[in-house]
Specification:
The chain is built from 14 helices and 17 strands. By secondary structure, the chain is of the alpha/beta class. The chain has 3 domains: 145 residues, 3-Layer(aba) Sandwich (Rossmann fold); 160 residues, Dihydrodipicolinate Reductase, domain 2 (2-Layer Sandwich); 66 residues, Alpha-Beta Plaits (2-Layer Sandwich). A hairpin with a 3-residue loop joins strand 11 and strand 12. Helix 1 packs across helix 12, helix 2 packs parallel to helix 12 and helix 4 runs parallel beside helix 5. The model has no long low-confidence stretch (mean pLDDT 97). Bound molecules: L-homoserine.
Length: 402
């Protein structure tokens, strides 16, 4: 029997308990052992809950119980999740987590501690919710040199952008509706400003490079400046606007990651990823492209991924599953040198100046008054910034992904 403790009985934690209970036959068979929820740590009591007698308020009970072999950390945030995870690993207890913030901040250290204490620190649920993406990168694509990852990694923003695209509505209006329906947090900043996607691409990029990609160094732009008019142009171009998180290992050996809204064409595999769904597109030098798609958030999909890690822990008691994510920081290329084509909106009166400054451009005709819109040639971020400054008025600009 494998005794499991769940830290945090919120949405994901209660989902973990539910998944283990509902699918116990399959899960126990696949684990080779019976999984037993021995403790649930939470500050609150849950009178009437079928697991109320498992609830404890003192983490010491869990830490000091040698029978507990696996811990599901579903608390979120850094503190005290970091301290609890570290202590558990130091005692040889494996930790499975959905906590992207903690993984992005302390991943290499916690992975190293797990290795030193012959246990595991697993985090499948930290990126893409229920989509298996950590395991494919870590254990399946091991014959590949992965040189590119592009993903829609945030369900909230994808829901908002999909609604804006479908209904021609404005950002604020759709955000409000998403909040009312519970798809967006009351404080949506981490999602709409791209911070959540940034942490997730930092985790995937670290696994891609085998080194530490600091999320603080990733250029991140959210979706708050995207308007209904941008979608009018996108439609005219047979494109959509998606918040993409991407990382690339370039031919010259340099590496960069970024999070920003991009206009993508109908032919792009991520074009039809709508609503709260996530998808990750991985490019390997032998395989080429592969794509992973599914529910990127939500109680049961996320809990399912946590429990898949618990099963892996049960299968590897006393052994550490290999994970390449060293402490050494990856040097990220200066984003100023990254090249893209840009979609640009300016005032109708500035048509001549736009042509003079940007040179070869493709004009975009759409039903938006008093504006002149165009697509530039490929140019670096710095070059674009300089030209935009010269032009004096850029109503909005969005990068293009082909
Ligand atoms: N806020 C996240 C999202 C939840 O919208 O994708 C899953 O990490």
């Amino acid at each position: 029997m494998i005794n499991v403790a769940v830290l945090g009985y919120g949405t994901v934690g209660s989902g973990v308990v539910e998944v283990i209970e509902k699918n116990k036959e399959e899960i126990n068979k696949k684990s080779g052992e019976k999984l037993n929820i021995k403790y649930i740590l939470d500050l609150r009591d849950f009178p009437g809950d079928p697991y109320e007698n498992k609830v404890v308020h003192d983490v010491e009970i869990i830490m000091n119980d040698p029978e507990v072999q696996v811990i599901c950390e579903t608390m979120g945030g850094i503190h005290p999740a970091y301290e609890f995870s570290k202590r558990a690993l130091l005692m040889g207890k494996s930790v499975c987590t959905s906590n992207k913030e903690l993984v992005a901040n302390h991943g290499p250290e916690l992975i190293r501690l797990a290795k030193e204490h012959k246990c595991n620190y697993l985090f499948e649920a930290s990126v893409g919710g229920g989509i298996p993406i950590i395991r494919p990168i870590n254990y399946s694509l091991t014959a590949e040199k992965i040189d590119g990852i592009t993903g829609i990694l945030n369900g909230t923003t994808n829901y908002i952008l999909s609604k804006m695209a479908a209904e021609g509505a404005g950002f604020e209006e759709v955000l409000k509706e998403a909040q009312e329906k519970g798809y967006a947090e009351r404080n949506p900043e981490a999602d709409v400003e791209g911070h959540d996607a940034c942490r997730k691409i930092a985790i995937l990029s670290s696994l891609m490079t085998g080194k530490n990609v600091k999320y603080e160094d990733i250029y991140t732009e959210g979706i708050t400046k995207i308007t209904a008019a941008d979608f009018v142009y996108a439609r005219a171009l047979e494109r959509s606007i998606k918040l993409l998180a991407m990382s690339r290992e370039c031919e010259d050996g340099s590496f960069y990651a970024m999070v920003a809204p991009f206009m993508i064409p109908v032919s792009h595999p991520l074009y039809s990823v709508s609503g709260v769904f996530n998808a990750v597109f991985v490019h390997g030098n032998m395989l080429g492209d592969s794509m992973y798609y599914g529910r990127g958030a939500g109680k049961l999909p996320t809990a399912s991924a946590v429990v898949s890690d618990v099963v892996d822990c049960a299968r590897h008691i006393g052994k550490t599953i290999m994970c390449f994510w060293d402490d050494e920081d990856v040097k990220q290329a200066n984003v100023e040198h990254i090249k893209h084509r840009f979609f640009v909106r300016t005032k109708a009166a500035l048509e001549k100046e736009a042509v003079d400054i940007f040179g070869l451009i493709r004009v975009v005709v759409a039903d938006v008054k008093d504006e002149y819109a165009f697509i530039t040639e490929e140019m670096s971020e710095r070059e674009f910034k300089e030209k935009a400054q010269k032009l004096g008025c850029v109503i909005n600009r969005i990068r293009l992904e082909s």
